[in-house]
Records
---
Amino acid sequence: MFPTPIHQRPIINQYIYKIFLPISLIIWLIPIFGILMTSIRGLGDITAGNMWGTPSEFLLFSNLHDVFTNTPMIKYTLNSFKVTIPTMLGAVALSCMTGFALANYKFRTNLIIFFIFIAGNFVPFQILMIPVRDLTFKIGLYNTITGLVLFHVAFQTGFCTLFMRNFIKALPQELIEAARMDGASEFRIFWKIILPLTRPAIAALCVLIFTFIWNDYFWATVLIQGDHAMPITAGLKSLNGQWITAYHLLSTGSIVAAIPPVIMFFLMQKHFIAGLTLGATKG
Amino acid sequence: MELNNSKPKRITWWQKNQVKISPWIFLAPGLIFFSIYVIAPIFVSIGISFYQWDGLSPSTYVGLQNYIELLDDEYFYISLWNNVKWLIFFMLAVPIGLGLAIFLNQIVFGIRLIKSLFFFPFVISQVVIGLIFTWFYQPNYGVIAPFLDLIGLEGFSILANEDTATYGIIFAGLYPQIAYCLILYLTGLNNINPEQIEAGRMDGAKGFHLFWNIVLPQLRHATFLAIVVTVIGALRSFDMVAIMTQGGPYGYSNVLAYYMFEQALSEYGYRMGYGSAIATVLFTIMMFYILFFIYRMYRNEREDNN
């Protein structure tokens, strides 16, 4: 293990480590504490410049009430779910198939197709922006959730294919060979043998895509204009313009926007990390 | 006899060719979708960069005019230069993430929770991070205001100053990026071969020497991924700029990604051709890294097959 486990060190080092650990955590989380505390405050504290002292009132619920009733926040949150969940399902479904095809069959253009998926995944969004916006206009889906979902599904398929293909490639090939010997059709092999084995990969992709799409801001501003279809990131930005110095509301809104991916992360942490490291984790 | 043979023959054709045709059936939906929304638009954009077009009226072919204009555009250079700053300073996330990972790679009470709390700025939207830091930087009632007073910079606004705005945004961007690199390195440290470490220790390797010669080479994969995602993050920086300064003051914190958007789609006008030219430049820069990444994957593939 590297570095040397702390319990093999002199006792004094152990104490120093145990003191520094919480201190470093507190420093690291200062920005988070900042918004948590501010979401409790009222306008009085904000204008008085009381940012770090004890809040003079506990107004979290009144702030939440303000945010939810005086702004389209509920609508924004719902929109985010309506964009995120179908994207997640669509991209995972498509990439199970592409990943399987690229991992299991030898054909001449295999690697080229694989590299096209990878390259597309890293491209800057701006090079896609004008044609994608145009296309969405032409098929009558500009300013709709469906239009946004279609693009997200297509784009995320790149990353998901990379992940799925590597995952399926690492599965024992004997299973597939044996099934083929028994005369199982290719579709049967995919459905009955591969899909059940890819469950951990599917879980990892679901968490990752959920966070990516939930946090997307760029495409939400390019493809959506009105409140009716706007997801929470773009919504928060537009509310920021109206609130100006109402930091207590801004903080409360930010927390609302951050909660779903944070919950997802804490529940599925193992899968999340496996996904980020492209499956380079053990166990 | 012929009649008898025809039916089983058809089945054998499918059986014989199933393995050849199946991959294309599995690939078709994903590949078609990806081509329409990702691959084709790249070429369309490059094409548009040779036209003058407001997005509505017919476009006019202008050849290299947009690129020639770029060469004389002061704001283009400012944005490009800011992208270079992003590339350099965003890279700090890699060593800082590595340092934190080494610091946290211990088994003490509560370490799992502590690690999770270190990770989680990464899952928060950049919009939220940008808003938090904008507020932190507020000259009069922001969080750092008391510190600015202390060093005699009362009322100094980091984001409104042309020399400091970009650094202020990069600093905010580092927060989730460090968490990302930390995740990659903690996983890497976890997968290190303990026997090699022990063998190194037996040979008397200690501290920095052990780290540099035995640990770091084993973290190659993590380092590679961390650098790739950090470079891509630096070149893609859009959200933070859009939230924190919108490129201001006077374009001094602009980056190519945001400048392109501003030219093509904002209140400043609908210059699709010019915007596409900026996007093409950004794409070309990015392509170097993409090709490098693919080259490495290709090498790994070949090693796997041999």
---
Amino acid sequence: MTEILEVLLRVVGVLAAFLLLPLLVGQTEHKVMAHMQGRVGPMYAGGFHGFAQLVADGVKFAQKEDVLPARADRAVFRLAPAVALVPYLVALAFVPLAPGLVGVDVDAGLLVVLAVMGVGVLGALMGGWASGNKYALLGGLRTAAQLMAYELPFVLTAASVAMAAGTLSLPGIVEAWQPWWLLWQGLGAGVFFVAGLAELQRPPFDMPVADSEIIFGAFTEYTGLRFAFFLLAEYAGIVLLCALTAVLFLGGWHGPVEDALGWLWTLLKTLALAVLVIWLRVAYPRLREDQLQRLAWQWLVPLALVQLGLTGVVALA
Amino acid sequence: MARLGLAQGLATTFRRLTRRAVTAQYPDVKPALPARSRGVIALTEENCTVCMLCARECPDWCIYIDSHKEELPPATEGGRPRSRNVLDRFAIDFSLCMYCSICIDVCPFDALHWSPEFEYAELDIRDLVHERDRLREWMWTVPPPAPVDSGAGPPPELTSARPADAEAAGPTGARAARTRTARAGAARRAQADSTQPDAVPPAEPGAAG
């Protein structure tokens, strides 16, 4: 009985985090981006500095007509938002906040999370293919190309930190983490973060949804709640990427008073990285498609390999 | 070089983040409009003599004036009865008005003024024809004239209304007198040997011509 209750509690906790954290990141993006651009952002919804803007957006999306293009592949078109969204929910369950505070503790947590995150990108690819729209198809293909290019450095750097810790378990990696790893794995952290950003198609890597060229890429034909799911998936992806970076490279719950405040340190590191994601979006223009590919193959992959070699040498020494 | 540019980009956006936003909270905070803002045309209908100058000068003919004549009994016994124009309708179609200010400039009796009020949008373009009562209401929002710049001469409104003796007091005063009224007064004053300036009545605008 207590076991069932515990599982239920963990599931509810993960679900709550999955529903709340992306909204928090979204609202932070609204306000931080606005102030970085000399604006104030939403000010009315909810009364105090527009804190309920995303709730209002959700209500708006729920009211919109659910358009299904005549030439769409109906089943795939309908399924795509779920394919984009659910993997992030699943992956979030494996990220530990503090010792013992994790949705599901498995030995190969890192492997599961990386595999599931790759599935999330398939949602955009499915949507782009099923929309029956040339812009959506172009966006979907760009998504696929980006996924192929950036998955490699992403996984290589994650492998590097797993090698350093000698385990694939996420809580195990955090346990093994030492502050000097910031230097040792710093290069890998940068590559991991940038490659993750590119996989999420966040600016400056948002070529697949470049609105000035191909409208909104794979999401062109989506409206209402389905579109909202894609948006939510993007922000859930940010949360997951930032949480993963914090757990793998920034020491997760390690910090002052980590016995009592460990979960807070993980959350704070995640949020700080999320602000960095927003900051990068505001500061940098979009990379061209060829620049995107060149960055991946000429910089990130070699750097990831260098990091992997460095990790191997130091770990064996 | 490129790396420096990346850091500069981050620095610029961060510096912007630490400063106050430039956003004007318009519906909550009214904008500080400059003096002589052309918001809407207000009418002092008491000043209007239905001379029709504004309606005729209006480049897009957006001023509508209706009037009729009224006979006034003679002021003195056996005199001629005077007729007077009575304003029936004064309306401005703000869907046509291009805010050129010509009507306000040509009005000889200061019946039209600029008001800085600008919140009179309507859902139907036909509702933008505003009648005299609405135009009269806007008159209360007309600000007092802005002070003249330092170093500028006295405004012609003051020099033309100055009593005749002040103008004749010195050559500067006579030079300042520019309007027909003032010239006529000065000329008459010179003929009257300048003994009793107060006794000279102010000349009517139409008397000299």
